Amino acid sequence: MDTTFPEPALRRVAVARYAAGERPCDICREFQRSRQWLNKWWNEFCRHPSTDFGDHSRRPQTSPQQTSTEMERAIVAVRKAREAGRTPQTQFGLIGSPTIRSDLKRLEYKELPSVSTIQRILAAYGLTHPIGVSEETAEYPWPLAWVPNAIHATDIITRHLRGGQVIQNIHTIDHYSHAVYLSQQLTKTSDTICQFLREAWAKLGLPFFHQTDNEGIFSGGHTHVRVLGKVVRLCLFCGVEPIFIPEYEAKRNYQIETFHGLWSRGFWSRCLFSNVEEVQTKVPHFTKWYHTEYCPPALNEKTPQQMHQTFKPFRLTSQLEKLIPAGRLPITTGRIHVIRKVDVQGTVTLFNESWSLHKKWIGEYVWAVIDTAQQHIDFWHLPESNADWIHLKTRTFHLEEPVRKLLPEFYRNRQRCRERIPG
Which fold has domain 137-423? Predict the structure, then answer.
């Protein structure tokens, strides 16, 4: 018989002839196949009468080397705990695959996966850092302050008192004048930050923009999509536009990070504090020295106080404070800014949602502007510091709750803001 027909067709004909009662030896001789071959496909037909007589995958049905679901969950949990840094054991140190493997060993897990397997699992769950986050591989769109209170930056530096008590040192700095406002708290929550900002704005004045990193207490958390947390809502209610720097790039908040270093050297490391009240008692002395005697390198031999001599800030007065409702704040019309570096898939993630851009932007920084009134998001790119912004795309950013108008008492002329920020 001509055996140039497709193999599945030969198998089908052979089985049909065997089922009709033809002798197996005659079929095998004509088809030039073994008796085992005929038995195999006859048994296949008996088990699955609808078979197409095609070849089956030779991939094993089970894989002894496959990482268990339990182990994957443990790897993800350890990585997230390391990232959060909420315990003395995870507050400092590395977060990479070798460290995670060491943690799993201390937890007495058996048959530990290799470092490369752990890295692969982290990548599958989206827990790896973007390529080149620590390298200057692209033009960064620095937001530049043009007057006092144009841009404030807030960050938290955690320290321990003698005996182990934790102190959360919350610092805000004005980018232009380098004026600061400091507070010391025992807890680090969004409510704590909101109260701190109200106090800072009463002292320094309301900024046009408020810059932070992507910690959950600032953004609203890392669980729900398009979540706008308490800090974001407070900013919008008071006419302040939040700016979130790229993830894992603390250097983009270098003004406040530089102040942290000065504060650590000139204040914290020179005193031995017993309790938070003692810290709070001595902080005003340091703050006075900083504002009246210290000349930050960027101010050309001027003090922060001198930079404020002729400036009249728009402060959060007691009258304005009364306009802020108690409880959950509404979403107010305004703009939210998020700076991100495009990953190797050509996407960026903000407010727990991924947005696809063209792959030609991989490795470049983009500036996303969310307009809560129009409920859309615009993506912009700045190729060079002295170039014009390039508009990449606009997408809908639907919010599930009503958006309130900005109260007239908080309205300020933002013409100069629009000249420096995209959108």
Answer: Nucleotidyltransferase; domain 5 (3.30.420)
